Amino acid sequence: MRFLPLDKLINLHDGYRRAFKIDQLEILLLQEAGKVWAVSSRCPHQEQSLIDAEIIDEQLLCPRHHFAFELANDGVQVDGLCASLKVFATAYEGNEIGILLP
Ligand code: FES
């Protein structure tokens, strides 16, 4: 696995949202209720940007049609209405957070 650094740990806080475009990957790093998640920055339903998505009880809500995705369950859409949201494995190295890529 390859560590891809995204941001410094000191920058994280509840409500943090930051989008990254690295090669072909569009990644959204976010923190809510003390938990950090890295997901695809576009909704798998109709490609809506998720930069303004809410997270409630570890479910990410797309701002467009309000589909809910279970972050702790591989991004599965709660009602089975579309594909899962891509959730990346996060990792820490030194004072940075990033994702693990195969
Ligand atoms: S675009 Fe996200 S739920 Fe439709």
From TrEMBL:
Pfam families: Rieske
Record's keyword annotation contains Transcription regulation: no
Domain Rieske: 4-99
Keywords: 2Fe-2S, Iron, Iron-sulfur, Metal-binding
Keyword hit for Iron-sulfur: yes
Xref: Gene3D superfamilies: Rieske [2Fe-2S] iron-sulphur domain
GO molecular function: 2 iron, 2 sulfur cluster binding; metal ion binding
Protein name: Putative rieske (2Fe-2S) domain protein
Organism: Luminiphilus syltensis NOR5-1B
